Amino acid sequence: MTSVLLGEGAQAAGEPAEPLAAFDRAIAADERIEPRDWMPDDYRSTLVRQMAQHAHSEIIGMQPEANWITRAPSLRRKAILMAKVQDEAGHGLYLYSAAETLGTSRDELLDKLHSGRQKYSSIFNYPTLTWADVGAIGWLVDGAAITNQVPLCRCSYGPYARAMIRICKEESFHQRQGFELLLALSRGTEAQHAMAQDAVDRWWWPSLMMFGPPDDESAHSARSMEWKIKRHSNDELRQRFVDICVPQAEALGLTLPDPELSWNESRGHWDFGPIDWEEFRQVLKGNGPCNEERLRRRREAHENGAWVRDAAAAYAAKNAAPGRGRVREQDLTETAVSA
Ligand code: BYC
C-alpha cells in the first residue's frame, strides 16, 4: 500500500474517513497492508487473533511428533523427524515476529496461550499412539495445513503473507515425508500395513476439522474474506483437501474411513460423510484427549526455559551498554600492541 502514515493520535481517535478510504482502496486493489500503514482496529485484532493462534499451533504441534523422536525406527527417520520438529519451532518464531509488527509482544501472546485465553489448533489435542501416526500427521495434518496456508501467502497483511511463503515451502517437505513414511509402512508387512491404516482411521476426521467450523457457523470468515486475510471459506478449503486426498489414499493403498465418500459428477467433487462437530466443540472447550497435557507441558517448557531468556536478555543488555563499543576497540588496540 502507498503508505498512509498517520500519527498515533489519529489512530487512537477512531477510524477517520480518509485513511479508512485509503485502506479500503488498497484492499480492493489487492495491495499489501504494511505495519506502518493505517488499519482499522478490527483488522488489526483479527490478524493478531489468527496469527497468534497459528503461531501457538506450530509450537504446540511440536509435542505429538517429538513424542516419537527417541523411538524412530532408524537413524535416517530420527534425523528427518528432528529436522521437522525444529522447523515447526521456526514457523512459530516467524509468526510471533510477524504478529509483533502489529504492536503486540511475544510475551503477551505466550501469556495468553498459557492462561487459555488464546486457542491453538484442535488437531494437536489428539495422541500419537504409534510410529505410523508420524506419517499420518505428515500426510494429513501437514497436507491440510498446506491447503489452508497456501492462500495465506496472498493475505492482505504483508508480514503474514511473507512468513507464509517460507512456511509453505517447508510444509511441502513435511507432507512428502509423511506420505513416504506411510507408503513404506503400507507396502511393508501385514502388521505395518495395519498400523498405517489404523493411524489414517484416527487422523482423518480430526484433519477435516482443522479447517474450522462449517461456513454458516464461522464467526469470522465473512469479514476476514472481505479484508482478504482469508481468500477461501472453511468449507471450500475442506472440500479441496478431500479432493486431493482421495487419489493419494489410493496411491498409498490405504482406505479413508468414510463409507459415504463418493464422486459427485455434477459437482465435480468428492462427497463426504458428516463431520462430528460436537467432538470439535468439545476439543475446543478443552475436553479433547490431550488438551490438559499439551498445555501443562508447554507451561513447563516455558518455565524451564526462563534461565535461557534471562541469559539472552542479560547478554543483549551488556552489549548495548554505553561505551561497550569503545572498550572493545581499546581491547583490540591493546591486543595488537602486545602482539
Ligand atoms: N482449532 O470463525 P472461524 C499446522 C476457532 S498449524 C481450534 O471459522 P477463522 C501445523 C476460531 O479461532 C495449524 N480453533 O475462525 C503445525 C474461532 O474462535 P475465536 C493451524 C479453531 O479464524 C505444526 C472459532 O473457532 N493453522 O498446521 O476465520 C505441525 C470460529 O472459527 C479451529 C492455522 O492457524 C481449529 N481447527 O478460521 C504440523 C492457519 N477452527 O478465535 C502442522 C491460520 C476454528 O473466535 N488460521 N477455530 O475464539 C486460519 O486459517 C483460520 O484461523 C482458521 C479458522 C481456518 C483455522
Automatic annotation (TrEMBL):
Gene Ontology BP, a term: phenylacetate catabolic process
EC number, UniProt record: 1.14.13.149
InterPro entries hit by this protein: Aromatic_CoA_ox/epox, Ferritin-like, Ferritin-like_SF, PaaA, PaaA_PaaC
SUPFAM superfamilies xref list: Ferritin-like
Keywords: Oxidoreductase
The protein's enzyme class: oxidoreductase
Entry keyword annotation includes Zinc-finger: no
GO CC terms in record: cytosol
Highest rank taxon of the organism: Bacteria
GO molecular function: phenylacetyl-CoA 1,2-epoxidase activity
Segments of this protein annotated with the region Disordered: 319-339
Gene3D superfamilies, per the entry: 1.20.1260.10
Pfam families: PaaA_PaaC (PF05138)
NCBIfam families: PA_CoA_Oxy1
PANTHER family listed in its UniProt record: 1,2-PHENYLACETYL-COA EPOXIDASE, SUBUNIT A (PTHR30458:SF2), PHENYLACETIC ACID DEGRADATION PROTEIN PAA (PTHR30458)
Protein name: 1,2-phenylacetyl-CoA epoxidase subunit A
Species the sequence originates in: Streptomyces bathyalis
